[in-house]
Amino acid sequence: MEEGGALACGYVRDGISALCFRGRPTLEGYDPLAVDPVSLERRLVMLLVLLDIHNRTIQDFHVIPNIDRSSRFTLKLKDPWLHRGERLTTLSNLWATVGRVCGMS
Q1: Which tens digit of pLDDT belongs to each residue from 72-85?
Q2: Which of helix, strand or coil describes residue 48?
Q3: Which of 26, 61, 73, 91 has a CA-to-CA distance to 19 between 20 and 30 Å?
Q4: Is 92 exposed, middle or buried (0-12, 13-18, 19+ CB in 10 A)?
Q5: Which tens digits make up the pLDDT trace of 87-102?
Q6: Cα(35)–Cα(37) distance, rounded to whole angstroms?
Q7: Mean predicted confidence (pLDDT) in 38-43
Q8: Quick check: 67 and 94 in contact, CB under 8 A?
């Protein structure tokens, strides 16, 4: 587990890096999520999975074309960095969304 962002899991398959973040409630809502880019995965499409503050359900999916930073950075729930990609409403749309996001980069 990462201290600031509670990185719960990482997984790579078919050219997609999947990162899952546990929610950590604070008085303001969520703790910022710390992302530690893995150099070999930075160029891959990233599926970002955000869990609710109780870590029981998935709150949000985002498909990001790649990680454009080489060192640790933090994200907030509604971070402008997420606009580099697209919010995914259902996993059944994953590959279509990946295609659109890859066309954006």
Answers
A1: 888 877 889 999 99
A2: strand
A3: 26
A4: exposed
A5: 998 889 999 999 999 8
A6: 6
A7: 87
A8: no
98 touches 44 (CB < 8 A): no
Query: What are the E-state strand segments in the chain?
Result: 7-13, 16-21, 25-26, 29-30, 33-35, 45-51, 58-64, 73-75, 86-88
Indicate the pLDDT class of residue 3, thresholds 50, 70 and 90: very low
Phi and psi at residue 19, to the nearest 5°: -120, 135
Cβ pair 82, 73 in contact under 8 A: no
- The 8-class DSSP code of residue 92 comes to G
Two tokens, residue 61: 């999916």
β-strands 86-88, 58-64 pairing: antiparallel
Per DSSP, the residues of 56-83 read: SSEEEEEEES----SS-EEE-TT-GGGG
